[in-house]
Specification:
111 residues, alpha/beta, Transcription Regulator spoIIAA, 22% strand
């Protein structure tokens, strides 16, 4: 399950399940909530996300493009070693700003 919480003007999406096609509908609903609240400043926290697959990678890239087109951004936080390896091997790591923890990612929006 994935949830959205707010920290000031920043939306944080996080969950405890693998980032796979099984959760895309839920994630798209959360992203739409982020988009409807103005300039989308979003952090996707991998803190408790054990794994991601190709559908999850595609969702991340599509979501980044959606946020950028709305004048905002999507940043990643706290990927575990497996998720970080998947992001690196697929070339996705270079497409995102990645932070070691959620607090750093949220704070990066103030710079």
């Amino acid at each position: 399950m994935y949830t959205r919480k707010k920290q000031g003007a920043i939306s944080i999406i996080e969950g405890t399940d693998a980032l796979t096609g099984d959760y895309l509908e839920e994630l798209n609903t959360l992203l739409q909530e982020c988009m409807s609240s103005g300039q989308p400043r979003v952090v996707f926290s991998f803190k408790n996300t054990p794994l991601l697959d190709s559908a999850g990678l595609e969702w991340l890239l599509d979501s980044l493009e959606t946020c950028l087109s709305g004048g905002g951004n999507l940043k990643l936080a706290a990927p575990n070693p497996l998720c970080e390896d998947i992001l690196r091997i697929t070339g996705f790591l270079s497409k995102f700003e990645v932070y070691p923890d959620t607090l750093s990612a949220v704070g990066s929006y103030t710079h």
